[in-house]
Structure formats: structure tokens, C-alpha cells
């Protein structure tokens, strides 16, 4: 794989992993549209590791405090972490519960990944599925934008909220659905504010991204990276991590005053284009 292709895919991964437009869809579509060769498992590992580093670095204070609280210890960074501040509105028990809510909410997606791994990696990775999923998720996202009362913050998460969003995350295995897209949409239906919905989505995605990175690492364990792929793999980690961190920061800032409408329109337009291209490709092959 040429280095420039690796950088392009790493930028795509870093941006789309955290925006509600599906990273898997874009990583399937780019090689399909431009006729690029499959970069292989090692590069897939690099992209997952890069975005994992991005989300861990951005939320490391939050995760350290949640881990300490979940284990019954006093938090370290609470006073400096805006996502876990407002102690007057959220007592220590609720903060402690948030950690375990995230643990429970991770289970549905982990089970779905274990049960449907082969289908996700084979049958579902085609442009028709991607196009349909892009459009299908845009519909409830638009509905959620309309009906949400936008009154809950991160410190207001309940067990039912976390399970609802966690079950939704399981559907993100389908290319085109988008992990952040489906979990944010589910959170809107639970009356979360937009930024709080995104923060909860990113926190919830961390164990899943870590699991995907670990699985990919185990898949390539003992395999030597070809010399020509070493630089692209390194670039994949660095670029996807830097771009991913910037994407998280920019998206959260945008949601302080913006809506999800632009992403809804993007999903519908891209889905229609993908389905049209798939139709003409199939028609051309038939002729």
C-alpha cells in the first residue's frame, strides 16, 4: 500500500470513527470506489489502535475518576473534569454508578460481536448494505432530534438509559450504521442533551474500540509485518490518533450550539449515491 493511501484511510478513520456517519462504511467505500487493494490486518490494527489512543487521551481524566469511583475510591481529577463536575447536582453514588452503567451497557455489543463476527466481516461488508444502513439510521436520528427534550446531562444517566443505549450500540456492527450515530440517536430518545449524548457515546465506545484493537492484535500475533507495510502501519497509528483526537474535540464544541441535521443530510445523500453506484456497477457487470 502506498503511504499516501495509508494516510488518506487514517484521516478517514480518525474523522468518521467519532462522527455519526460510520467509519466502517467509509473504509469499505474508499477502496471499493477507487479500486485500492485491501491493506490487510496489520493496517486494520493500526487504525483501531490510533482511534483508541485518541479517545483514551481525550477522556483519560474521566476514565481515571470513573475507575476509582467504581472501585469505591475517591476521584482524582473531578474538580478539573467538566464532564464529571457539578457535584451539587450529582452525588458521589451516582458518579460511582456511571462506571458500572458503562460496563453493563458494553455487554450487548460485545455479545453481538462474538455471535455475528463472521457475518459482519463477510456478508454485511458490501455497498448495498452500507447504503441502506446510512439512510435507515438517518430516519430515527431526525426523529430523535425532533422529539428529544434535551434535559439530561452525563451525570443524569440511569440504568435504563445505559441499557437502552448499549443495546443500540450492538447494531453498530452493521457497516453504515455508525457506533456514534446509533448510540447518540438512542440517547436523544432518552432526552439527553446533544453534547451529553456524544460524551456518553464516546465513553461507551472506548471498551468496544479497545476490544476490537485487542482482537485485531491477536489475529496478527506472530505474523511479521512486511517491510513495505511498516511505514504505512506507523502512519496509520499516528494519523488516525491525531485526527481522531481533533475530531472528538471539534465535534463536542460543535454540539454546544449545533444540531445533527448536517449529519442526517450527509447520511441520506451518501446512502443514495452509494446505492446508485452499486446499481450501475451491477448493471454494468450484467451487461
How is this structure best described in words?
It is a single chain. The chain is mostly helical and 287 residues long. Helix 1 packs antiparallel against helix 2, helix 4 packs across helix 5 and helix 7 packs parallel to helix 9. It is globular, with a radius of gyration of 19 Å. It contains twelve helices and no strands. The chain has one domain. The model has no long low-confidence stretch (mean pLDDT 87).
The gist of it:
By secondary structure, the protein is mainly α. It is 72% helix and 0% strand. Helix 2 (23-34) packs antiparallel against helix 7 and helix 7 runs parallel beside helix 9 (179-189).
Write the element-wise H/E pattern from the N-terminal end onward.
HHHHHHHHHHHH
- Strand percentage lies at under 5%
Given as residue ranges, the uncertain stretches (5+ residues, pLDDT < 50) are none
3D shape:
globular
Number of helices in the DSSP assignment: 12
Helix content: over 70%
Decide which structural class fits the backbone.
mainly alpha
Descriptive keywords:
72% helix, 287 residues, mainly alpha
Question: How is the topology of this model organized?
Answer:
Layout lengths: L2 H14 L6 H12 L6 H18 L1 H11 L21 H24 L1 H5 L5 H21 L11 H12 L8 H11 L4 H26 L7 H28 L6 H26 L1
Helix pairs in contact: 1-2, 1-3, 1-11, 2-7, 3-10, 3-11, 4-5, 5-8, 5-10, 7-9, 7-12, 8-9, 9-10
